[in-house]
Specification:
Blueprint lengths: L1 H43 L3 H13 L4 H7 L1 H4 L1 H44 L6 E3 L1 H12 L7 E6 L5 E3 L1 H20 L7 E8 L4 E8 L6 H4 L17 H11 L3 E5 L7 E8 L9
Parallel strand pairs: 2-4
Antiparallel strand pairs: 1-3, 4-5, 5-7, 6-7
């Protein structure tokens, strides 16, 4: 029964990551759509039709262009039209180049998100050589927490890559960062901050700490927060932090929480064995 629960937690964790991937791709596609609509609007309202009309006018007066441009009322406006057109297209080129650059960035972002998901789903090993700092960067990209005006402060020890279950680690971190984001969404403070700390403890435990300055946790909820089904969210299922705690336990580690109370933020601390990859003898 315990093993079945662990397998279920793992599946829920992967589903959580996949759900975030789809959600974030949807957000990026919205940005792609905005850029595409702007480019389309530029094309629709381009003065090309006026240029065609001027071309027809010049063609109609091709036998006496000099007289037409210097003495005719319509012809006298032609040089000014071309000057205005040059300025317009100069600005339009800058706008289009900017939007095309943003489109390229959005598409690259989507590719990176999909590549991250594929790298997880395609690796069947439970443990793999993992750079903890790089993994956290992947999770930050998946959760897009900085898109909501949240500042991320990083305090990382310089550690060697470790042998760890990367999928479980990402599952835990996705849950913790979403929890921090929800806590910050519920507060009106201007300087929303999440501090992520990576430390090697004296007892050879790898510690990853996620601290936010959000709404905090009432003392009566601290002992229940990892229980299955417990949630304070209106649409929560109460399995996110529970599955994260189970994943930590399955990694021979632990997940703990601390808060000084309502309005004083919260700190989640993950501790797992520090398994450094042994270097082969030369």
């Amino acid at each position: 029964a315990q093993q079945q629960l662990l397998v279920s937690a793992r599946k829920v964790g992967m589903a959580e990551v996949a759900n975030n991937v789809l959600h974030n791709i949807g957000n990026v596609l919205n940005s792609v759509n905005v850029s595409a609509e702007l480019l389309n609007e530029k094309i629709v309202h381009s003065p090309l039709d006026n240029l065609v009309k001027v071309g027809d006018l010049l063609n109609a007066n091709k036998d006496n262009l000099n007289t037409f441009i210097t003495q005719d009322a319509q012809g006298e406006r032609v040089p000014k039209f071309f000057m205005a057109l040059a300025d317009y297209w100069k600005d339009e080129k800058a706008t289009i180049s900017k939007e095309l650059g943003q489109l390229a960035n959005h598409i690259e972002h989507i590719k990176n998100i999909i590549a991250t998901q594929q790298s997880l789903s395609g690796d069947t090993r439970f443990e793999q050589i993992t750079d903890i700092g790089a993994t956290i960067e992947e999770v930050l990209q998946i959760t897009e927490i900085t898109e909501d005006g949240v500042t991320i402060k990083k305090d990382y020890d310089k550690l060697s890559p470790v042998q760890i279950d990367k999928i479980k680690l990402m599952q835990i971190l996705v849950n913790l960062l979403h929890n921090a984001k929800d806590a910050l969404d519920k507060t009106s403070i201007p300087d929303k901050l999440v501090t992520i700390k990576i430390k090697l403890k004296p007892d050879e435990k790898l510690m990853i700490e996620v601290r936010d300055n959000g709404v905090g946790i009432p003392s009566e909820n601290l002992e229940r927060i990892f229980l299955h089904g417990f949630t304070t969210k209106l649409q929560g299922h109460g399995f996110g932090l529970h599955s994260a705690a189970l994943a930590a336990k399955e990694m021979d580690g632990s997940l703990a929480v601390h808060s000084d109370g309502v309005g004083k933020g919260a700190t989640f601390t993950l501790e797992v064995p520090y398994k450094v990859v042994a270097k082969a003898n030369a």
